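Action item from last meeting closed. Structure (142 res):
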């Protein structure tokens, strides 16, 4: 039984890793956010990025029309920046404490996490070109 559980765990971990290699947006929860990005607690303002590559995190909701329109744009950008930037998606309704800690007041809410430096945000629906420009400026230093 232990072997089956370990094999299943390893398979899930490989699938999650391959999502970033193939250039896909990976849906994550609060626990995965803490592992892959880092965490900000309301009483602790320090933040240390834990990721291997800069990341874009899309805070969204299933009921949000602009969020649904943004999803395919982020999928395209994940392919465009494959291997350079990781893309994640967080459902604010399923992860309220995380959304509150990051002061997400409306969705869609993008957070750009550089490997070093201060995260930057973008609220609302923007064209692919605008988001790509932000990625290049904030995350890739271009």
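Sequence:
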């Amino acid at each position: 039984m232990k072997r089956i559980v370990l094999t299943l765990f390893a398979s899930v971990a490989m699938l999650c890793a391959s999502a970033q290699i193939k250039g896909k947006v990976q849906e994550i929860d609060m626990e995965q956010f803490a592992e892959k990005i880092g965490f900000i607690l309301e009483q602790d303002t320090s933040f240390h990025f834990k990721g291997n590559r800069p990341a874009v995190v899309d805070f969204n909701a299933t009921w949000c029309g602009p969020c649904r329109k943004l999803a395919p744009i982020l999928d395209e950008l994940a392919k465009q920046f494959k291997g350079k930037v990781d893309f994640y998606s967080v459902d604010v309704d399923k992860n309220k404490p995380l959304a509150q800690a990051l002061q997400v007041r409306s969705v869609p809410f993008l957070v750009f996490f550089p490997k070093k430096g201060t995260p930057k945000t973008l609220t609302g629906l923007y064209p692919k070109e605008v988001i790509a420009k932000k990625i290049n400026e904030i995350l890739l230093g271009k």
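Note appended to the action item: Confidence is low (pLDDT under 50) at residues 1-19.
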